[in-house]
Structure formats: structure tokens, C-alpha cells
Design brief:
Layout (H helix, E strand, L loop, with lengths): L3 E7 L1 H7 L9 E6 L2 E3 L14 E5 L3 E8 L2 E8 L9 E2 L7 E8 L24 E9 L5 E11 L4
Antiparallel strand pairs: 1-6, 1-7, 2-3, 2-4, 4-5, 5-6, 8-9, 9-10
Length: 157
Amino acid sequence: MTDRLWTATLTGEQLAEFLGTPREAAPFGILERVDAIDFPAPDQPVDPDAWDQGRVFGASWELRWERHDGGYRAWITGETEPEGDAWNALPSLQGTRAVESRCFLFGRDEMRLERPIEYRALGPGSGRPVLVRRELRDARGHLVLLRFTGMEWETTK
């Protein structure tokens, strides 16, 4: 089965429902605003009003949102249609192929940052944190959509 994409304009209450805890199917999160970034654990509540944008994600789906006109623009990418009437399917991603990729995140003691970053969803580990991504590419290899599927600690070989 291939990933599909849905979009919605949500109120803070509607978004908070999707961000409920525990987030078993989306245990990872990245929350952002101009002065901060956070990586909450799946059992930590997420207050959308405290962040300009964010995402929660796991192997089966990703929910992204950003503040817009007193509400939130939101997108869900995954294999299963989200519940609720607010969601509208966008054109199919049929014909795309999935390519798994990884990239490093800031280390916990990154000197360029004002404070150490806690990757609470990862638990104990060592090395640098790695963001696991799924790139959906068209027949010519062009990137159509990128979604996050997980986080893990760097493995040394």
C-alpha cells in the first residue's frame, strides 16, 4: 500500500484531540517556534497553542501542522484515512516509490545551541540522534513528498 495525503483546517481543540497521549502510533514529535525546539516523549501532552508548527510521527503516519489565521493548517500522510469530517484527500501519491533515508539531528551538547537538547522519545542512548525519513519520488526520481517515520540513535559500525 502506498502513502496518501489529507489536509484540514483545524481548531486548537480539534488538533489537541489528534495530539492526545499516549501517541502509540506516532511516538516521535518535533515542536517549533522562533525561539525554541522540542522533542517530546509519546506520553507528554503537546499544547499546539505553545508552538508555531510541529509534527508527530511514526512508521505508519505523520501529522504536521502550522498556525494559520487563528487556527491550524494540518496534513496527515499515511496509509490509513484519518477519522473525522475535517479531512480532505489530496491527489493520490500513486506511482511514487518510497526511498528510506536518514539524516543527523543536533547532538545533545551541540555548541551552537543555547541549551542541550533532550530527545525524550528516544530514551537512553549514545551518539547523535538520527531522523528516519521516507521520500516519495516520482518515476523521474523527483521528490514529491517527504515524511518522517522515526528517530533512533546513531549506530557505529
